């Protein structure tokens, strides 16, 4: 079963109970001020679903929908705004960034609350993983923007003497950011910060699977930022499709490879460049010569303490040696208890599964005959609360579904090999992941890993925090994506690097113009070949 | 023509070869680059002939635009390879103790290069140099519209390069389509926007990153210049940047000119005399202008002139020789803006001059059209220069010259090494530079006389050549 998270609306199973993603009504202000169209207005809506076919019918109580015409109007309006030059100057960019900074200060509680509503994300995790990251991204841009905006001087060779050259970073224009549900705040605002710092107008489409954050973003952007150039469009499939029909100057999409293809195909029509931040099965190779306690803590941090495994860079599976596996499992068991207590289902420090459809998907992965008897830890689940305990499976077969797709949940398969070098083949047999992790003290192994494993990013002896490093680009390769951002790379991602060459009228080398006399020909050839004798001969007309 | 099964087998073998790791070694990459240099030296005569056959290009044009630029790029790549291959340290926040970070360039794997017919060698080998320097295996599909060049590439590359890692697959659109169905780690395409869309749509299947080098209507803005020397040089460069560059069939050739009304007559007269000076009284006989590539394009160009209003605006040239695929250098003044000649990329030796009240109007005019690959602006007015950069958007902007920004390539400092290896997904009519140097030393633009002396002392071939070139040009002029 292959459920695309972005493209299917969430559904509530019949007879469900307590806190769930869509179980509370939305209310939004109707915005009909100076705009010629209304935003999508939603009040409460419920879904009827047929579990057999997984089809659903939405009973939306609401009119104006955001369709292709609305999208065209929106794009047109933003383009006008951009063309007026409003967003390109330094002052505007700084003012927007400062407003974002202010917003983060003033609305931190609201943000944390929305993240808790959407994902049961613990407050501290929300702060560390999302809010503080956005803060630091914003701070960096504020500090460095003036430097980033300076054209890069470029060396010119004497061939073009006298001349000077530079690379000018110019905004692309009007860009679209489509974000996702697992770090809904971070993955929406981080690219938007990049787009703004590069001087673009931006439309943000947050994920409907994290509706509280989506609504909050819509309100906050309206309250704090320049409406004429920065907008949020809420919605799901229809709204996204309508947006994708328009011509954007760049699209940054975070999500699944399946929808990534849809985005790229739509972009192809307008030759729009895209950045696709996708995912993959991020492996962690664990050697035996390590500080086991630290390594295990970091692995847990990069799996269960990271949105409960629902992260594109989360550790998907572990590979270790047959001999070491028991020790590793024991250490994991011990540290998991330290982190989440004896009964992790009761722990407040772990996020829940985002939706019932994902819960069902994960349950199926666990119940698969090939793996159900391989569970060595955990396995408990609660459909009502959308909780699954940290679960470890040992030696699952390669062809089990759990090894064929990105898990995106709290299930951790451990594969064992004879010697650690064998892990390389396993990793290389799968599509290139967004991240790869290695825990070892063996320098040669580290070198081999870096040389031979291809992944978006890599981290030795830790997990996930490499993306918090501004100096490193964050992006994938192959199936895990294309393009990158973070830090200055965000600014570059949303800029066009324009090559500018200044030439003088003086010293015009006629050698390059017709009429092509034999002498010129010989001379040109001699000069390019660097052959002094020929040059002299050609000059004296030999 | 290869059939489908052969492709798949060949590609499988290439991937296998790549996975053995040979292409990642610096020595292998160097050997391939050296092989290309040898190819260019030894096969020079054949290359000149092939281009003469395919496009009627004069030897000097071929040497200057294709072989010469490739040699320079190869020398640069050989010199800089070590530096390009080494990882770059990344800055870490102070809180990160006992941590180091770096950005490591790695090859993508198996890349597809689809090149165009107007500079069949340059546009095939320039990207290939980048791909090989980065350690990839390469499949090249040259354009079937330049058959002599395509088959020469096929034989030469298999002789001089590692043919387990570099293959040439010849053929037309159907072969191109089949190739696009395969899985690549990158596709590099040079050609029209229409086919660019097809390439990008095909790349979606495997989420293949792509680089698209397309085209557009590249305008030249000619401001009033007070010095007659300057005007002469400007017009010379414009004439060369149109007719002397594959007869205008180049993505960066000047498409049309923007001039102030009061300056137009001077410009037109000067252009006429410059054309005669460069190409002789009878350009067809002088063989100094390339031919139109084929009948289809010739008829397309002929059609552009058919419109009676367009025809009426022709002030020079206009004759079309269908049998010899030759169109003489043609100048038009103010053809109607809705005519095809002003809405589509011309890609031929027809040069419309659009007159304006004041030269600043050129900015609005340029912005009314899709973004071009290059904008050329001849002016000494610093304000206009600044406005041109900040108020228009294009792949590149060159002041007071044409074409030269790619022929004599600049050594650019990319913002990150990944530009060599990763996606440079290009928007409509924009472009990224074909080759980049990753020289990270901060450098100054303007070269002073002092540098020129020092460079001479250093004696590197590039600068030595350049110094000589300059001094020779001074002598010749």
TrEMBL record, chain A:
Superkingdom of the organism of origin: Eukaryota
Aldehyde dehydrogenase domain location: 53-500
Glycoprotein among keywords: no
InterPro entries, alphabetized: Ald_DH/histidinol_DH, Ald_DH_C, Ald_DH_CS_CYS, Ald_DH_N, Aldehyde_DH_dom, Aldehyde_DH_NAD(P)
GO CC terms, sorted: cytoplasm
Entry keywords, A to Z: NAD, Oxidoreductase
GO biological process: aldehyde metabolic process; response to abscisic acid; response to water deprivation
Gene Ontology MF term list: aldehyde dehydrogenase (NAD+) activity
Catalytic site positions: 277, 312
Reaction equations catalysed: an aldehyde + NAD(+) + H2O = a carboxylate + NADH + 2 H(+)
Family the entry assigns: Belongs to the aldehyde dehydrogenase family.
Name of this protein: Aldehyde dehydrogenase
Organism: Quercus lobata
């Amino acid at each position: 079963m292959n459920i695309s998270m972005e493209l299917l609306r969430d559904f509530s199973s019949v007879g469900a109970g307590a806190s769930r993603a869509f179980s509370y009504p939305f209310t939004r202000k109707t915005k009909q001020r100076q705009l010629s169209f209304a935003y999508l207005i939603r009040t409460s809506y419920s879904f009827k679903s047929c579990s057999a076919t997984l089809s659903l019918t939405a009973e939306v109580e609401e009119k104006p929908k955001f369709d292709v015409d609305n999208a065209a109007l929106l794009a047109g309006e933003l383009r006008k705004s951009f063309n007026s030059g409003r967003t390109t100057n330094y002052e505007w960019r700084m003012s927007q960034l400062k407003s974002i900074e202010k917003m983060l200060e003033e609305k931190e509680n609201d943000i944390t609350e929305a993240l808790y509503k959407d994902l049961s994300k613990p407050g501290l995790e929300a702060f560390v993983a999302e809010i503080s990251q956005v803060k630091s991204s914003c701070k960096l841009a504020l500090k460095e923007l003036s430097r980033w905006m300076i054209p890069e001087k470029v060396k010119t060779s004497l061939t073009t003497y006298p001349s000077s050259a530079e690379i000018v970073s110019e905004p692309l224009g009007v860009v679209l950011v489509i974000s996702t549900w697992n770090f809904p705040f971070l993955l929406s605002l981080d690219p938007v910060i990049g787009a703004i710092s590069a001087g673009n107008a931006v439309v943000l489409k947050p994920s409907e699977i994290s509706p509280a954050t989506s609504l909050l973003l819509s309100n906050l952007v309206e309250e704090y930022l320049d409406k004429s150039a920065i907008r949020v469009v809420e919605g799901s499939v229809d709204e996204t499709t309508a947006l994708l029909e328009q011509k954007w100057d760049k699209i940054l999409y975070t999500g699944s490879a399946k929808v990534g293809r849809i985005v790229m195909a739509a972009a192809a029509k307008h030759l729009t460049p895209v950045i696709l931040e996708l995912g993959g099965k991020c492996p962690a190779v664990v050697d035996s010569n390590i500080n086991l306690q630290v390594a295990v803590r970091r692995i847990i941090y990069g799996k269960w303490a990271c949105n409960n495994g629902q992260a594109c860079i989360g550790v998907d599976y572990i590979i270790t040696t047959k001999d070491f596996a028991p020790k590793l499992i024991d250490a994991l068991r011990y540290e998991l208890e330290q982190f989440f207590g004896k009964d992790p289902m009761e722990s407040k420090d772990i996020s829940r599964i985002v939706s019932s459809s994902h819960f069902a998907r994960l349950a199926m992965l666990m119940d698969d005959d090939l793996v159900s008897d391989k569970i060595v830890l955990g396995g408990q689940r609660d459909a009502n609360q959308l909780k699954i305990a940290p679960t470890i499976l040992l030696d699952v077969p390669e062809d089990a579904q759990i090894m064929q797709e990105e898990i995106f949940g709290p299930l951790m398969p451990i594969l064992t090999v004879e010697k650690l070098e064998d892990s390389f083949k396993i990793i290389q047999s799968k599509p290139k992941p967004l991240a790869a992790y290695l825990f070892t003290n063996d320098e040669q192994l580290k070198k081999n890993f870096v040389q031979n494993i291809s992944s978006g990013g890599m981290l030795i002896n830790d997990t996930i925090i490499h993306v918090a490093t501004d100096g490193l680009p964050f992006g994938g390769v192959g199936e895990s994506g294309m393009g990158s951002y973070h830090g200055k790379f965000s600014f570059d991602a949303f800029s066009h690097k324009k090559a500018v060459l200044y030439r003088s009228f003086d010293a015009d080398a006629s050698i390059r113009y017709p009429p092509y006399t034999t002498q010129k020909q010989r001379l040109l050839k001699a000069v390019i070949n660097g052959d002094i004798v020929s040059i002299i001969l050609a000059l004296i007309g030999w | 023509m290869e059939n489908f099964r052969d492709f798949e087998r060949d590609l499988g073998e290439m991937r296998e070869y790549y996975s053995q790791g040979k292409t990642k070694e610096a020595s292998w990459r160097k050997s391939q680059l050296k092989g290309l240099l040898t190819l260019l030296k030894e096969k020079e005569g054949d290359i000149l002939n092939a281009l003469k056959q395919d496009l009627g290009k004069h030897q000097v044009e071929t040497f200057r635009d294709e072989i010469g630029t490739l040699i320079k790029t190869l020398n640069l790549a050989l010199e800089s390879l070590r530096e390009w291959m080494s990882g770059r340290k990344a800055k870490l926040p102070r809180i990160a103790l006992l941590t180091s970070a770096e950005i490591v360039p790695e090859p993508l794997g198996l890349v597809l290069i689809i090149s165009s017919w107007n500079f069949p060698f340059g546009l095939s080998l320039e990207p290939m140099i980048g791909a090989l320097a980065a350690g990839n295996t390469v499949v090249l599909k040259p354009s079937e519209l330049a058959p002599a060049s395509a088959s020469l590439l096929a034989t030469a590359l298999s002789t001089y390069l590692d043919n387990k890692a570099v293959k040439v697959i010849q053929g037309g659109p159907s072969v191109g389509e089949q190739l696009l169905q395969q899985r690549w780690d990158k596709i590099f395409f040079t050609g029209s926007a229409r086919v660019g869309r097809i390439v990008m749509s095909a790349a979606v299947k495997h989420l293949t990153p792509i680089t698209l080098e397309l085209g557009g209507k590249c305008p030249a803005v000619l401001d009033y210049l007070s010095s007659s020397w300057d005007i002469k040089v400007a017009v010379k460069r414009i004439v060369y940047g149109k007719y002397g560059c594959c007869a205008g069939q180049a993505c960066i050739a000047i498409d049309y000119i923007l001039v102030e009304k009061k300056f137009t007559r001077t410009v037109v007269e000067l252009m006429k005399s410059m054309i005669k000076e460069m190409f002789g009284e009878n350009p067809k006989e002088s063989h100094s202008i390339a031919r139109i590539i084929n009948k289809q394009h010739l008829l397309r160009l002929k059609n552009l002139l058919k419109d009676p209003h367009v025809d009426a605006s022709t002030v020079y040239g206009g004759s079309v020789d269908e049998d010899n695929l030759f169109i003489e250098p043609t100048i038009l003044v103010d053809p109607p803006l809705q005519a095809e000649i002003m809405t589509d990329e011309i890609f031929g030796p027809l040069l419309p001059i659009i007159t304006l009240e004041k030269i600043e109007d050129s900015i609005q005019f340029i912005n009314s059209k899709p973004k071009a690959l290059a904008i050329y602006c001849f002016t000494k007015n610093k304000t206009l220069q600044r406005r041109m950069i900040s108020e228009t958007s294009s792949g590149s902007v060159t002041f007071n010259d044409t074409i030269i920004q790619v022929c004599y390539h600049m050594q650019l400092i990319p913002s990150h090494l990944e530009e060599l290896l990763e996606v440079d997904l290009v928007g409509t009519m924009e472009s990224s530079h074909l080759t980049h140097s990753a020289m990270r030393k901060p450098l100054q633009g303007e070269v002073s006389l002092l540098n020129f002396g020092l460079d001479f002392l250093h004696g590197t071939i590039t600068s030595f050549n350049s110094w000589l070139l300059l001094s020779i040009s001074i002598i010749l002029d």
